[in-house]
Each structure stands twice: as C-alpha cells, then as structure tokens.
Design brief:
Number of helices: 2
Structural class: mainly beta
Number of strands: 13
Strand content: over 45%
Helix content: under 10%
C-alpha cells in the first residue's frame, strides 16, 4: 500500500454513475481523530523483547504500545463492507484518494500497522460491524504493541500520521480511501497524546467483540 498509485478501469457500463459512486467504487474518507503512544523499558529478563540499550545500532528501537482511532466515512449512496485497515506514522507523509485512484507516499516511517478483517474467520467480528451504510461515519480503534523504529522522532511529538482503508461495495467493486495530516502530540513522561475527539467529561467506550468504539459520558 505504500507508494501506491492506481487507476481503475470501468468494468461495467451499467453500474450506478452517481458522482459519489463512480465506476462502481465508493468514496471513502478517514480522519485520525485520536492517537495514543507509550514507550516502555523492557527488562533484560524478557529475552524476546529486550534490546541492548548500550548498542548504538539498537538504541533508537523502542518497544511501545499504540491506540489510534480513525473516523471513517462512507460518502457514497451504497453500503461498503470494510475489510482492511492500515495506519502509519512518519516524518513525511502524503496520502490522497479519490474513488478512481489513490496514492500514498510515506518517508521514514517509525510505525506501521495493518489489520485485516474477515467476519467469516473471526467469530468476534460480525458483518454489521464491518458494514458502513450510505453516508455513515463510524469510529474504528486499532491498537497493539510494536517496535518504534525511531524514538527520537516520536519524542519530538510532531510528525505525520495517516491511514488507509479498503472495502467491498455490495454489488459493486472494491474501494479504498485514506488521508494523512501533521499532528502535534502532548507528552506526559513516556506517553504521547493527540486528541481531537474526546471532551473533558467524556471517555471512549471500547468493546471486546469489535474494533468499533464510541464516545460517551465519563461514568
């Protein structure tokens, strides 16, 4: 998906020609609404994760956790079943998509994560969870533990973060969408936060059986 530039042919001249649904492909957009990163030292007793902090070749590599929320919108008049999510953070980035083509240019990424969804194989994910109705916006959270390749860039708190999403139009063709932007994260010790989603008296509602999240009052 990195550095991808694709032009899609028209396979069926009878497909809906609505401007939001050209050539049978949906218009999908996303915005990074919330991002949390944390770094953590790993004890040398944890052999599989420990890095030799005295080795200049590995001192930049840091084990950390991430939690990123994407606000994904289907701007088309047809439903889309999402099946792939991709997020990354880098020094430079430009991700743009139209229904007919897309491009992603990412320079010096320190973090990349890809999640593939298939409700037929994942008993915790239902088809409803992955289906965006026409003109619907939904929040998707991606999280995990990874290795940050450039701790120095993370510590600056200013870098690009972006995402890409892919799905299938019901009775149509596969579609993609994406976007990126420069963010400025607040730093709290070894934790970093970008929040353009949750208010002071609100909190994120997480669900163990779904990647979807919601914003609700703090209880």
């Amino acid at each position: 998906m990195i550095g991808l530039a694709v032009a899609y042919p028209l396979f069926n001249s009878n497909i809906n020609t609505d401007p939001k649904y050209p050539n049978g492909r949906a218009q999908i957009d996303l915005d990074v609404a919330y991002a949390y990163f944390s770094t953590q030292p790993v004890s040398e007793n944890i052999e599989s994760l420990y890095r030799n902090n005295k080795d200049p070749a590995s001192i930049q590599d840091t084990i950390g956790s991430f939690f990123v929320v994407l606000n994904i919108t289907n701007y088309s008049n047809v439903s889309v079943i999402m099946n792939e999510f991709f997020i990354s953070a880098a020094k430079e980035m430009n991700i743009t998509y139209t229904p007919n083509q897309g491009s992603a240019h990412i320079t010096y990424p320190f973090f990349i994560y890809r999640q593939i969804e298939n409700n037929q194989q994942n008993r915790f994910t239902s088809a409803d969870d992955l289906t965006w109705k026409p003109y619907e916006s939904r929040l998707v959270a991606l999280s995990g533990i990874t290795q940050f390749a450039n701790r120095t860039l993370l510590e600056t708190g200013t870098f690009y973060i972006g995402g890409q999403v892919a799905g299938d139009v019901i009775d149509g063709l596969s579609s993609q969408g994406g976007g990126s932007k420069l963010i400025h994260m607040e730093r709290f010790g070894n934790e970093y936060l970008y929040n353009n989603l949750v208010g002071k008296n609100e909190m994120l509602r997480l669900y163990y059986s779904s990647s979807l999240v919601a914003v609700g009052p703090r209880s």
